[in-house]
Design brief:
The complex is a heterodimer of chains A (556) and B (536).
Chain A (H helix, E strand, L loop, with lengths): L13 H4 L6 H13 L7 H15 L19 H12 L3 H5 L13 H14 L1 H13 L2 H15 L2 H11 L2 H16 L3 H14 L7 H13 L12 H5 L2 H19 L6 H8 L15 H18 L1 H10 L9 H11 L20 H21 L3 H18 L9 H11 L6 H14 L10 H22 L11 H26 L5 H5 L3 H27 L6
Helix pairs in contact in A: 3-4, 7-8, 7-10, 8-23, 10-11, 11-12, 11-14, 12-19, 12-20, 16-17, 16-26, 19-20, 20-21, 20-26, 21-22, 22-23, 22-24, 22-26, 24-26
Chain B lengths: L1 H8 L6 H6 L5 H23 L14 H14 L19 H17 L15 H33 L4 H12 L2 H11 L2 H17 L2 H14 L7 H13 L6 H38 L14 H5 L5 H4 L2 H25 L6 H15 L9 H9 L6 H17 L1 H6 L3 H14 L38 H23 L9 H28 L8
Helix pairs in contact in B: 3-6, 3-7, 3-8, 4-5, 5-10, 6-7, 6-9, 8-20, 9-10, 10-12, 11-12, 11-15, 15-16, 16-17, 16-22, 17-18, 18-22, 21-22
The chains are: A mainly alpha (556), B mainly alpha (536).
Chain lengths: 556, 536
């Protein structure tokens, strides 16, 4: 009938141009979805950021880090405070009236404030889209489609959706600076790399965990030059340092830090105590899925075992000397009473009954140890891939062994890993493990029933799309060594079982009122989450470390 | 045939939906496309569900949410014989029995989770967050079970018949599943229209496959869920009768199977009412279902009676009985054309057209119409997104926007303005209606373009507007009028004497657009009656 209506235009040219790989459509659709999330749940982090808006707007700069009317004191580095200050300049009058900028103990605000603050998150996230669009545009034609998959997987990440747009934070914006640094490293713009990473650090100091890798990489590729190096005496070591580059890089980084911290130089100790509060416990209220979750579980199992089967304890005391484990059953009981552990998941500090207590120093050393292991190969042979690998492993080390780790920190692993995974198909298994376990471990952040289906379905559809897309764009293995298929199958099984785990825990939660045993173990659901997810993150780390350390052709 | 194939691929060519789904074109990936669009459709429904529902934290009577919850409360707690009698002043059950069984099922299920939600008497006006989540969940579950598979089957059937690429059918399915009005009413305002509509789609699917008995049964189920499905009944009647009488001659087994399945479905559905309460109970339910004692229209609705009531006050000049008679005549006159076409030309591809024209006639002229009833004509009309005719697609997209616009006063009252705006933009943007205004002022590296599909960067998709200049003018003018009414509604206080002026203007515009569309639809039927499927 009216077939002439269609314009036959688009058919001829695409073969010439190829797709443009624009993130525009993704931005529009994602933004529309995020707008729908405005009336939904938000966590206390919302009031935290509102309070910071108020502090930076109402108080002179020198009081920012001293103000403590609300318990949500400013504990981000100065750039973030400046960022909040700039945002606060745009608060319209009706939002002001709503109580958005009041310095009070507990925020008293309504929908206008919510709309404004959610709007700032959505708006600031544009930077993420822009940076990733540059990443796509700058990539060579052969790898453009793969890079597009990576970029779109990051902008649509359920992690950002859950943490930023429901829970409330500004990670999308903050990570875009980190991604800019990675991007600069990829294109050998090392000064920019240093600049962006320093900036990112001054926005959110959690990026400090990635600092060893950046430091080693920049040092090796930009500052040191081994090309004409011949060792004759120690004086020759001086000649490998490219002093000009060192001063340029140092100047850039120091300039960033100066701009950031100089206004607060007189209150240095106060800023430091705010930024690094070591008074917190080993694990967060809900254990992040890391090594310590398994450690804690082991302690609980051993306690139970020793109490129920005293013989095991007697046997063990023969092998292990008493100070390391409690000498008698009475001591265990006494400790139990003392710490009042059991099922109270909300204690600020976790004590262990059987296993040795964990000191902050130990977690710090462990983290550092694994980070150094990750960094050493970069010093030997600084390729971009190896650098991103070391970034990922640094993120892993801090996440798995750090002190008071938040589940949100998994993004520090997932984002660098995303840039890595397209280079080899064998990396796909550890990547799938860490994204699925990592994103699922974010679910307890949204504990209301209203978001349950949303977070589950969104993560599910993201996984379907990107597991499929990444498999298609990743290169076949560069190494001749065969993959261990058993491991792949097992990982797939683990990932699929996440679904019944999530639904099961939700059902447990819904039926809690009915059975007393469920009330007694109120936090069993959260424990299941962190234990199950920590298996995924740990195995992903093991898998990646193996490839990183022992599979040489992959990283060139 | 190749020409058809080429064109049908292009129905939504270069729209964002096309762009999103084009990575699924390789055969190995097609399998996933279905899941991806369904899950995204569900995600959007969940997100809309975060908003408020009708009557959330208002007054003692509240709204549809409370009505549905209350029905779960009474069906699970009191005997069947009392269902249609219990405290009629407070949301007495006034839907057919399948709604009651549906409420019973979800009430029982919910009581397993928390018995307080549906406890008799004490649960009135309960609005805990968990209850809200559960109720939202039941709507989603009902839709997943009925409406979504029905729509997908329908689009696949049309796609295969027209030798469309699988992705083309999925794009059509996505366009239908992202229809904003149904999402906002079911998941925002709170109702279970998707059950009724889903059952109707099943009936249509059965007709397409030539299963006449099951089709009749599905349609009866649909009527027995919500009496509004009666808007379709003349067409189903005409089609089934015609297929039984002249196919090519009187087909007795088919006739008997249709008649029997209709009777059996009705009797099975009403049997519990009869068994537990006798004839009186059945009559009471029928009396409750058809409330002729109420006015000729309810609230403000974009149909003939409400709009012409501005100029001529019916209630003052005629008795209720007279008005009923008038509306009956008008409705009959309205659906006779589509009925006749369906009876004499029982062709499968005409089904959505006739269903649309017939139910639109009911919406415009029948008695006691709600603004939400527009969803009934909207269903067959939206199914026409399967078409490859640019004019049809344009009209469908236009009428979807008009329908959404007429729901604005209701959604505004429910506090769903944000969801309304977002869904309006989203649904239009997805099918490519905003391609004309993609920003070109952005820096070069950010300039919008297709993300994955092979559409060239400079290609600009035409907005969905018909080819005829007259229709173009009408449609653009209606959009401008909508914008003006929205602006007035938002920024200008209505005059003292006419506090409902903006709403009335909304209804007036809606009625004119629906009327025009209905005329077009009938004209289309007239011209299409002799076409075959291949021409469609």
């Amino acid at each position: 009938m009216t077939k002439t209506a269609k314009k036959p235009g688009g058919e001829s040219s695409p073969a010439r141009n190829g797709p443009k790989f624009s993130l525009w459509n993704f931005w529009v659709s994602a933004t529309l979805l995020k707008l729908l999330l405005i009336p939904g749940y938000y966590s206390t982090d919302f009031d935290v950021h509102r309070n910071w808006l108020a502090i930076t707007n109402k108080l002179p700069l020198k009081e920012w880090y001293f103000e403590d009317t609300s318990m949500w004191t400013l504990d981000y580095p100065p750039f973030f405070a400046f960022f909040e200050w700039i945002l606060s300049l745009f608060v319209p009058k009706f939002v002001r009236k709503d109580g958005c900028l009041d310095i009070v103990k507990v925020g008293d605000f309504g929908l206008p404030t919510v709309i404004f603050q959610r709007g700032t998150v959505i708006f600031s996230e544009i930077l993420l889209f822009a940076v990733l669009q540059i990443y796509i545009n700058k990539s060579s034609l052969s790898e453009r489609s793969a890079n597009f998959v990576v970029a779109s997987s990051i902008v649509l990440s359920p992690g950002f959706l859950i943490i930023d747009h429901i829970h409330f934070q500004y990670n999308g914006f903050l990570f875009s600076i980190l991604i800019a640094a990675i991007l600069a490293a990829k294109h050998q713009r090392y000064l920019f790399c240093g600049f962006f990473f320093a900036t990112a650090l001054c926005f959110k100091h959690i990026f400090l965990y990635l600092a060893p890798s950046f430091f080693a990489f920049l040092l090796r590729v930009y500052v040191l030059n081994f090309s004409n190096f011949k060792f004759k005496s120690y004086y020759d070591l001086i000649s490998i340092v490219q002093w000009k580059n060192l001063f340029k890089l140092g100047g850039v980084v120091l300039a960033v830090f100066t701009v950031s911290f100089a206004p607060f130089i007189s209150q240095w100790p106060q800023v430091v105590t705010r930024l690094f509060p070591f008074s917190r416990g080993l694990t967060h209220a809900y254990w992040a899925p890391n090594f310590w979750a398994i450690y804690t579980l082991l302690d609980k199992i051993l306690t139970l075992l020793f109490l129920k089967v005293p013989y095991v304890h007697r046997l063990l005391t023969q092998i292990i000397a008493p100070p390391l484990i409690p000498a008698t059953i009475e001591e265990i009981k006494w400790k139990l009473q003392q710490y009042n552990v059991g099922t109270k998941g909300l204690v600020q500090d976790v004590y262990f009954v059987i296993l040795p207590q964990i000191q902050p120093k130990l977690t710090f050393l462990l983290t550092l140890f694994y980070q150094i292991l990750a960094v050493i190969p970069v010093l030997f042979s600084p390729s971009f891939k190896r650098f991103v690998g070391s970034l990922t492993l640094c993120g892993f080390a801090s996440f798995l062994f750090g002190w008071h780790v938040h589940e949100k920190a998994i993004m520090l692993v997932i984002i660098p890993f995303s840039f890595l995974v397209i280079s080899d198909r064998r990396l796909l298994t550890p990547f799938r493990l860490v994204v699925s376990a990592g994103y699922v471990s974010l679910f307890p952040l949204l504990h209301g029933s209203a978001d349950f289906l949303l977070k589950l379905l969104y993560t599910l559809v993201w996984s379907i799309i990107y597991f499929l897309a990444l498999r298609q764009v990743t290169k076949m293995s560069s190494s001749v060594r065969r993959r261990v298929f058993f491991f792949d199958r097992f990982a797939l099984f683990y990932i699929i079982m996440l679904l019944p785990m999530v639904i099961g825990v939700q059902m447990l939660d819904a039926l809690k009122w009915r059975y007393e045993i469920l009330q007694k173990y109120e936090f069993a659901g959260l424990m299941i989450y962190s234990i199950y997810c920590s298996i995924g993150t740990l195995s992903s780390w093991v898998g990646l470390s193996w490839l990183y350390n022992f599979d040489e052709p992959l990283w060139e | 045939m190749t020409a058809v194939k080429k064109v049908s691929k292009k129905s939504f060519f270069a729209s964002p939906l096309y762009d999103f789904l084009s990575p699924f074109r390789p055969v190995g990936n097609q399998y996933y496309a279905e899941y991806v669009i369904v899950i995204f459709a569900l995600v959007i429904r969940c997100a809309v569900g975060l908003g408020s529902f009708s009557g959330e934290s208002t007054g003692p009577i509240r709204g549809d949410f409370e009505a549905q919850r209350h029905w779960m409360e009474i069906t699970t707690s009191i005997p069947v014989s009392q269902w249609y009698w219990y405290d009629l002043q407070y949301w007495g059950l006034d839907y057919p029995p399948l709604t009651a069984y549906h409420s019973y099922f979800f009430g029982k299920l919910g009581s397993l989770l928390d018995p307080h939600w549906f406890a008799l008497g004490t649960s009135r006006g309960l609005e805990t967050p968990d209850l809200k989540s559960y109720m939202r969940f039941t709507v989603i579950l009902s839709e997943v079970a009925l409406y979504i598979p029905g729509v997908i089957y329908f689009t696949k059937w049309f796609g295969i018949k027209r030798k469309q690429s699988p992705i083309g059918t999925y794009i059509a399915a996505a366009a239908i599943l992202f229809q904003p009005s149904l999402i906002l009413i079911d998941h925002g305002h709170f109702q279970y229209n998707s059950v009724m509509l889903g059952l109707t789609v099943y009936a249509i699917n059965n007709l397409l496959d030539g299963f006449y008995g099951p089709a009749a049964m599905c349609f009866v189920l649909s009527i027995c869920f919500k009496q509004m499905a009666l808007y379709y009944s003349p067409i189903f009647f005409a089609y089934l009768l015609s297929k039984s009488l002249f196919s090519p001659s009187f087909n007795i087994p088919r006739f008997i199977s249709v008649a029997l399945s209709t009777v059996i479905a009705f009797s099975v559905l009403f049997a519990p009412l009869y068994v537990f309460g006798g004839v009186k109970n059945v009559l009471q339910s029928v009396h409750r279902i058809f409330p002729f004692a109420r006015g000729i229209f309810e609230d403000k609705v974009a149909n003939f009676w409400c709009v012409s009531n501005v100029f001529f006050k019916y209630a003052e000049n005629f008795t209720q009985a007279e008005l009923q008679k008038f509306s009956m005549y008008a409705t009959a006159a309205g659906f006779i054309p589509s009925f006749t076409v369906m009876f004499f030309y029982p062709k499968k591809h005409l089904l959505p057209f006739t269903l649309g024209a017939c139910s639109m006639a009911f919406f415009l002229f029948s008695f006691q119409v709600h603004e939400k009833s527009i969803l009934v004509p909207l269903l067959p009309i939206t199914l026409l997104y399967c078409s490859s005719d640019w004019n049809v697609l344009s009209m469908v997209s236009w009428i979807n926007n008009v329908a959404l616009f007429t729901l604005w006063p209701l959604l505004k009252k429910d506090g769903l303005s944000l969801q309304y705006g977002v869904m309006m933009i989203l649904s239009n943007w997805l099918i490519g209606n905003f391609s004309f205004c993609t920003p070109r002022f952005l820096p070069r590296f950010l300039t919008p373009g297709p993300s994955v599909s092979d559409v060239s960067e400079s290609y600009r998709r035409r907005s969905l507007l018909p080819n005829s200049i007259l229709w173009k003018l009408i449609i653009v003018a209606s959009y401008v009028a909508m914008a003006i009414i929205h602006v007035l509604d938002m920024f200008v206080e209505a005059p003292q004497r006419l506090p409902d002026l903006w709403v009335l203007m909304n209804c007036g515009l809606g009625f004119s657009c629906f009327g025009l569309f209905w005329l077009w639809n009938n004209y289309k039927l007239l011209t299409m009656r002799n076409t075959s499927f291949a021409d469609f």
